[in-house]
Structure formats: C-alpha cells, structure tokens
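To: structure subgroup
Subject: Chain for Friday's discussion

All,

I'm putting the inputs and outputs inline so they're searchable in the archive.
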Amino acid sequence: MKDGLRFVDCDMHIMEPVDLFDKYLDKKFRDRVVLPVDSKGQFKRGMIVIDGQATSLDHEMQQHRKRSLPKAKTETSQPLSGSRMAAGGYLNFAIERNYDAEAQVMGMELEGIDIAVMFPTMGLSLIARDNMDPHLALALCQAYNNWIHEFAQHSPDQLKWAAMLPMQDVNMACAELVRCVNELGAVGSFVRPNAIDGHFWHSNYWNPLFEMHCELDVAMGFHEGTGAHNSHMNVLYGENRFYRHVASHWIEMQQALIAMLIAGVFEFYPTLRVGYLEAQNSWVPGILTRIEWDYPQYRDSHAPYLSLTPKEYFQRNCWAAVEGSEPEIEATAGLIGADRMCISTDYPHFDSNFPNVANNLLNNVTRETAAAIFMGGAGLWNFDEEAFQKAIKAMEARNPAAAE
C-alpha cells in the first residue's frame, strides 16, 4: 500500500533476459532471430534482428549521434519526466540483480504497489511490422509469454502480466489469448494502437478478438512503443526520435480510441474493458468533446448504431493512465472521473519518475482523487478484494513492514 491506499500499477515494465529467445523460442524458428553478442560471444542487450530486419527502426533510422551539451547544461530539475534514474542510482538494486523477479518486487515495495501488471520492454516493438510471417510472430509471442509466466511465479499474487498477441492473424491472436489466460494466468493482453497489415481498430477484422476478451473477462491494454516499424510517426518525422516520442504515445492512442468508439466497438461489446496506457490522459476529454461535437452532423447518417454519448462509452468501458506528475490530472479527473484513470510507474524505463511516481501523484492531487487513480487499475484488470488480500499476504511474507 501507499500511505494507507491500495495501489495497482496498471503498466510496470520488465527487462527481458538477453537469452530469452535462445532458451524459449521454438527451435524451428531460432535461425531467423539473431541476438547481439559481446566480445566474449555472450548474449547482451541490444538490437535483435528478425528475418534480417532490426526489431526497432530506431536502430535503422538514426543517422548519427547528436552532439551532447556540456554536462552542466544537461542537468534538469523539470517536474514531469526526465532521464534521471540512472544518474540518481535508483535502479542500482535492479541492475545488480539483472532485473530479475526479486528486483521487480523490490521495485514495487519502493513505490508502495500492491499488484503490478507487467508489460515488455524489447517486446514493445518485437512484432510491430507489416507482412511478418504470422507463424513466426506467434512463436515469438509464445516464447515471451512462456518466459513471463515463469517470471511471475516468483510472487504470482503480486506479479500479474498482459499477454503479447500475434496481431498478424486475428485467429492466432485469439488462440494465444485463450492459452495465456486459461493455462498461464494472464490477466489480459498487450496490443499496440497502430494499424497492422492494413487493419485498424474500426475494422470488423478485429471483432473475434474483442469478443474473446469479453468471453474471457479480461482487458485489452493498448501500449505504444516509439520506433516500431508500423508507426505512421516514422513517415512523418523520420529519424528524429524526439518528434516521434512526443507524437507516438499520445496521438496513436487518440486515433485508436476514435476508431473504436465511432465504429461501435463499445456498443457491440459492452463488457469490453480497454486501457490506454503510458500516454498521459489529458487528451481524453478533448477527443470525447470533439466526437460529441460532430454527433448531430454524422451520427444518424454514419453511426446510427451508437446509443450512448462518447463520455458514457468511455466511462463504462475505458481507462487511461497517468504517470503522476502531470499538472492536468485533477482537472481531467473532474471531466472524465478519477475512477476511469489508472497509474503507470513505467518502471524501469528512462522517462519514468520511479521511485517517486506515487509520491508525485499524492503531492499533485487530492487524496480522494489519488485513491481512485491508484485503484483504477483494479477496475481495468479486474482485481477484487480476494486478489488484494492474497497480494498483502505475499508482501507480509516477504517484508511485514512493507504491508503496513
């Protein structure tokens, strides 16, 4: 708990082990995945090449390294996010443990997290490309999902995870979701907001996947990752990652919500739960208002199936994450409801404010608003009182003081 408040981290990241695909990938696909090695021939973190193509365009598009400013000029005290964790030593405990599961739980204790839902790091862009062999995409997803299932067994009542799905084929995606939920204990899925192979989120192509999430009663977690091959931001902004990082996380989420809401996804699948993660959420009220503005002109002629207002759909089906320090949080909560918000620590990524994400939220909004946001992830990922009691017992078994 954080200052007596229950806290679900709706989006906490892991750092995949360097040998994940050497150990877990189906051997018939192993020669299509080339892992980086160091001077001793040992696997290391870095660019992974799949079928001759880097997993992230950041490796291919960046033409040169930008000249750094003198050290004194690079120091920052700006309040939102900043690449400060490494310099501050906040991740030393995790680096020393090579980001193992014990380090994951230690990070949760530092933030006061009861339950965390884990998302990938390297895997954010792993299969985010058009024209990828669906069977290879499935094998990569299965390797990751099998590994993170084992990772979570270190403390399964605290460590939850979202399944990576092979979006190149909707039927394969459904089958992998079923396997991960029913056999491995996943609490939902990780999907990217981008179009893939010409299919965007208003397309009937995805209906089986929406239906499967409803039948299994699990959530879809949209998560962008800058540098993916199929992001339109690459076309707009090219090799400058500053442009792409600003635009991709926010704008790609807006486009996904617009597509799903106007297409009637939430009308036809009223129990579907969707999270728009790691993109802040001050954009949500404006998008809902824009759709509402156009309702009189287009609803009857282009979307007669819609029976609710945009805000009503969002407040029934959707959650959007904050990262604690945004100045608009209280105002946004007043417009869409704090209970439709959740919080992402984004641990251990460079732009996270770990280990002060929860502190920032508490210092930024009223305690009532903070309490609702800390618990927003419980609504999204469907954690009940029993889940919290199990998490508390697991925490007490490790460290009685941390559960107080």
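Points worth raising on Friday:
The longest strand covers residues 8-13.
The mean pLDDT is 91.

D.
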